[in-house]
Amino acid sequence: MPEVIGVDGCHGGWIAASRPARGAVRWRRVETLASLFAGPRPPRVVGVDIPIGLLPRGARACDVQARRLLGVRRSSVFPAPIRPMLAARSYAAVSHIRRRVEGKRVSIQAWAIMPKIAEVDRLLRTHPRRRAIVREVHPEVSFLFLNGGRPMGFAKRTREGQAERRALLRTRYGQAIDAALADRAALGCQPDDVVDAFAVLWTATRIAAGAATSIPARPPRDAHGLRMEMLA
């Protein structure tokens, strides 16, 4: 059976945590999401922490519902950009587009992940068959479900937040999460990038098993046919 992969963005690339049908969890850094399809067999599921499907204006229902579910951790879900913003090549340009279309500002965090959003958007528009494989997953929503429907007690970048998330992941992956974190210097990433990739892997495994929850239950599609949903 093809492998299941959880992916989180990092500076200049992606961290991928994967589990083949038989074998231990492994982790690696890849420069592009497309490189995950370079082998003789495509992955079964690639869960990725990036918005898929964009509106011309307004908020996606999945973002609104995810923030409602997360309660005290709602701020971890950044509003997805509107599609016109993908054409921008600078922060000034993207800010101008957002103000013109919606009269709102653009956060630095949102601008920082725009290249990755554009990368995934191009991949799925160019290769429609990969749309059933590459699915949007938000790590904090994954942790909510992994934690029995309760939001995490601390923000993920705090010492306490990292500890509680690692403890949850150990219940599923044992010491693999600690080994991956010990390898983060070679991966060239931050600790939360590794933790989030493992959380996304947990949901990707649920997707592969047909056990994942869709947010919203009946996701709409954008103008290019991309499903606007989060899976958990």
**Count of individual domains:** 1
Number of extended strands: 7
User: Which stretches are poorly predicted, pLDDT < 50 over at least 5 residues?
Assistant: none
Q: Largest sheet at a glance?
A: 5 strands, mixed
- Report the sheet-strand fraction: 5-15%
Main sheet strand line-up: 3-2-1-4-5
CATH C-level class: Alpha Beta
| Overall pLDDT confidence | 95
Q: Tell me the distance between the termini.
A: 22 Å
Strand and helix order: EEEEHHHHEHHHHHEE
What gyration radius follows from the Cα positions, in whole Å? 17 Å
Number of helices: 9
What is the helix content? 25-40%
Name of the CATH architecture: 2-Layer Sandwich
Q: Which structural class should the secondary elements be placed in?
A: alpha/beta
Question: What is the overall silhouette?
Answer: globular
